[in-house]
Amino acid sequence: MTMKLPIYMDYHATTPADPRVVEAMLPYFTQQFGNAASRNHAFGWEAEEAVENARKQVADLIGASAKEVIFTSGATESNNLAIKGVAEMYREKGNHIITCVTEHKAVIDTCKKLEKQGARVTYLPVQKDGRINLDELRAAITDKTILITIMTANNEIGVLQPIAQIGAIAKEKGILFHTDAVQAVGKVPVNVNEMKVDLLSLSAHKMYGPKGVGALYVRRRNPRVLLSEQISGGGHERGMRSGTLNVPGIVGLGKAAELCRLEMVADTERLSKLRDRLNAGLHKNLDELYVNGSLEHRLPHSLNISFAYVEGESLLMGINDVAVSSGSACTSASLEPSYVLKALGAGDDLAHSSIRFGLGRWTTEEEVDYVIDKLTNVVRRLREMSPLYEMVKEGVDLSKMQWVTH
Amino acid sequence: MAYSNKVIDHYENPRNVGSLPKDSADVGTGLVGAPECGDVMKLQVLVNPETGIIDDAKFKTFGCGSAIASSSLATEWLKGKTVDQALAIKNTDIVAELSLPPVKIHCSVLAEDAIKAAIADYKTKQEKEKGVPATAGHAQPNA
User: Fold this and answer.
1) Contact between chains at A317 and B11 (C-beta distance less than 8 A)
2) pLDDT-based confidence at B143, cuts 50/70/90?
3) Which chain A residue lies closest to B112 (C-alpha atoms)?
């Protein structure tokens, strides 16, 4: 089989829908197009049945019961609903939220907005490996703390937080625990009961489903979590999220969840081997590479490497038939280097030099080998062109330089 | 980032990559930018002290495609110019030649700074040769 270019290795950003998912969705656009809220005819019943089936499929993937799954437009909405919904609903109880500096913007900016409205938010730092320190979490808890929100896996570095331990602490203190699990669900085992999670956000397009649909898990027992709705209307989804249900999208999410549940073990084994092959191949060919974040506590398909003395955007230009992401300022809309990598304390220069590799269901060994070769050549070429590499080879300590910044 | 063909050409076929003997009195070295900002340019000129004409120019750049292109273009332009003509090169000339988008204008500014720093270094060295003390205009290791 000949390899097709360009190669997609950015599965953290999004995934293609699995053809089996699309096939499951198709009838719900044209034949079974009913409104799931239409209670008095067969079109509505069919749609409702499909939605309830999908609810079960999603619940099964995360060890929940179907009634605890609320469909949304995606994980950004789920995060907003969870955090704002709790802050409003439990205002009488307290106004303090604990989160972490490496969270996705959908969590951080939601917290910032609540701060403007009077909430108090603690942004926990992370350790060099990308994980929070549990003692710092304990120390941050006050009698006003109503919510801890910590992501399951980071979108840039793939590092898994100690979710079960965080859940245990939250439970012990009687604080609600939300996790943005969008990168983890479908990739690694996630169980809301074992992890003592009260609220969990997930998205279909990160696990081979369609874009524009996601879910929020909302615990119904021990404790029964209440949320202030953020979108008002017809009272769909137990009143927590109004709006006509996106039936084809929800069917797709359900099918995607089912496939992930059935194929996770095989996928994980295959992808972690490929990821390790990529990491080993690059390290064999090149010196001064730094893996960002813990290798041990990491998603199986995920790798983030800084190629010292080479800038990320120029690296991407050199591998323009490979789709990956960089933490370099030049590749971000904000023109700031990745705040996640900066939080690891490795230095801004390594953030500028980072590449995120995300492998997925259709990544092949041939593609991995191609990327190793291509990157090796480009990094070597750019290092020949790099004044920093030259200085280091001459024995200059870059950290002792006085740079003329601009 | 949608780059112009000229930027891509300079990125793929950079002109005058390399280093000149930095301790030579006829060589001026400019090192500008900072690793934590994501771009560092080293630009060097070899000046004929008799004629004041830049005989050779070399660069090495850590930075994005347009930073590489800006410095590569700068070395092309420097060769054959007098020191004073070199100082007249403006970042806006580089922006125009490479059709740099607004977010990349700082790359051209850096290239202009690198030219000025290299010439200043050359002049300092020449004055030193003649026994006149002066200050350097580029990055140096801390004492």
Assistant:
1) yes
2) very low
3) A406
The pTM of this model reads 0.92
Tokens of A11: 């599965």
CATH topology of domain A19-260: Aspartate Aminotransferase; domain 2 (3.40.640)
Of A309, A317, A400, the CB nearest to B62: A309
Interface check for A390 against chain B (CB to CB < 8 A): the answer is yes
Domain at A7-11+263-396, CATH homologous superfamily = Aspartate Aminotransferase, domain 1 (3.90.1150.10)
Least Cα distance to A374 among A320, A296, A311, A333 occurs for A320
Read off the pLDDT of residues A190-215 as tens digits, 9 standing for 90 and up. 999 999 999 999 999 999 999 999 99
Of A317, A295, A310, which is closest to residue A351 (Cα–Cα)?
A: A310
Q: What is the pLDDT of residues B18-30, one digit of tens each?
A: 999 999 999 999 9
Name the residue of chain B whose CA is nearest to A354's CA: B38
Residue A283 to residue A274: CA distance in whole angstroms: 14
A325 at interface of B, judged by CB pairs closer than 8 A = no
| Interface with A, mutate which of B1, B5, B64 (most A CBs under 10 A) | B64
- How is chain B split into domains, by residue range? 5-125
CB contact under 8 A, B62 and A406: no
Nearest Cα residue in chain A from B17: A385
* Confidence check: pLDDT of B83 > 70: yes
Every domain range in chain A assigned CATH 3.40.640.10: 19-260
CATH 3.90.1150.10 in chain A, residue ranges: 7-11+263-396
Residue A255 main-chain phi, psi, to 5 deg = -65, -40
CATH number of B5-125: 3.90.1010.10
Instruction: For chain B, list the strands marked E by DSSP.
Output: 27-34, 39-48, 53-62, 140-141
